[in-house]
Write a structure and sequence with these properties.
- It is globular, with a radius of gyration of 20 Å.
- The chain has 2 domains: about 150 residues, 3-Layer(aba) Sandwich (Rossmann fold); about 190 residues, Dehydroquinate synthase-like, alpha domain, CATH 1.20.1090.10.
- The relative contact order is 0.12.
- The protein is about 50% helix and about 15% strand.
- With about 350 residues, the chain is of the alpha/beta class.
- The protein has 14 helices and 8 strands.
- The chain starts with 12 loop residues before the first strand and ends with a helix.
- The protein binds zinc ion.
- The site of zinc ion has 5 residues, from α11.
């Protein structure tokens, strides 16, 4: 087997727009005649009846299955048992990151196909085959891979703009880092999430993602504050869900995402949204890259305008001690992505970079 294959992967269909849920039937029908919808209670209340009706209209029987809101191994097993009783051809995972990841985890265990239906654009989980599993204290314990990418991704922007603005901001955070992580991966020939090296398409998508956020991100977040679907919102959602997801999955991840291992182990920061964790962590990565003050200042200006965190304090962890910084740095080094960097890093390098920027 060749060891230097370029691999690019992604979902079968990506469908985005205001009212996409009501129009998704023709994309779901080919997947089979029975489905389960996995979501927590608030998300079932928000979209459950609509999803069941749209499915029924195209001859698909869809059973809602409520999950607790926490994605732990025990909860995945419980929900999978309930879902198995309906013998679904496909699983629809709906919600923010956790509802979608629970849907993927259950589909993986049932050997069913997967539809992701984000109700917030808070991360790029909808397009990815990866899902994160946490313990009862919300510490990240493992990241698993489904056998295949999601079959259909449905992003209803009229629903997305009703989610809290901080979710939209977190989505921008999860996406803004990709250009820099993918660049590090290309620099060292790192493996992507398919075990290959990246195609140039992944790098181009990460660049397009960054350029879109920088040119339209501020206008988009202003529109979301008004609960309006504008062209800026459509472009930025495509960047935060599609470009960001394809970019990292086929391009690879580096320090910004490696740091989620450390940040999810400490007070305050562990409760921050994933996209806000990686946005802070990008500032650490930029320090490690030796970026000049003007460059970092320009990124910081964008962060302020889009409610992204500039410090551990902004991330919900004021007065971080040196010991706590060392814990974050040590946790970061346990992530395989920490090796995808232009030079070999130690925990001391990570801690030093953290101390060099605002706490
Ligand atoms: Zn991410």
């Amino acid at each position: 087997m060749s060891d230097n294959l370029r691999v690019f992967g992604g979902p079968g269909r990506y469908v985005q727009g205001a009212g996409a849920i009501d129009a998704m039937g023709r994309f779901l029908q080919p997947l089979g005649a029975s489905a389960v919808l996995i979501a927590d209670r608030p998300v079932l209340d928000l979209v459950g009846a609509r999803v069941v009706k749209v499915c029924a209209d195209v001859g698909v029987r869809c059973e809602p299955v409520e999950f607790s809101g926490e994605i732990t191994l025990a909860e995945i097993a419980r929900v999978a048992d309930v879902a198995r009783g309906f013998a679904p051809a496909f699983v629809i995972g709906a919600g923010g990151g956790r509802g979608i990841d629970t849907g993927k985890a259950v589909a993986d265990r049932l050997g069913a196909r997967v539809v992701t239906l984000p109700t917030a654009a808070s991360n790029d989980a909808p397009t990815s085959k990866l899902y994160a599993v946490y313990d009862e204290r919300h510490r990240l314990v493992q990241v698993d891979h489904m056998a295949a990418s999601p079959d259909v991704v449905v992003v209803d922007t009229a629903v997305i703009v009703t989610a809290p603005v901080r979710m939209f901001s977190a989505g921008i955070g999860d996406a803004v880092v990709k250009r820099f992580e993918v660049a590090q991966c290309f620099g060292v020939g790192a493996r992507n999430m398919f075990g290959g090296t990246g195609c140039r398409a992944a790098e181009a998508l990460a660049e397009l993602c960054y350029d879109t956020l920088r040119s339209r991100g501020v206008a988009a977040i202003e529109a979301v504050r008004r609960r309006e679907v504008t062209e800026d919102v459509e472009r930025v959602v495509e960047a935060t869900v599609l470009h960001s997801g394809l970019g990292f999955e086929s391009g690879g991840l580096s320090i910004a995402h490696a740091m989620t291992r450390g940040l999810s182990a400490v007070r305050g920061a562990r409760d921050a949204l994933h996209g806000h964790q990686v946005a802070y962590a990008l500032l650490v990565q930029l320090a490690l890259e030796g970026r000049d003050q003007a460059f970092v200042g320009d990124v910081a200006t964008f962060y302020r305008a889009t409610d992204l965190p500039l410090s551990l304090t902004d991330l919900g962890m004021p007065d971080a001690t040196d010991d706590e910084i060392d814990v974050i740095a040590a946790g970061t080094m346990t992530a395989p992505h920490a090796r995808n960097f232009q030079r070999t890093l130690s925990a001391a390098d990570i801690a030093g970079a953290m101390r060099s920027i605002a706490r």
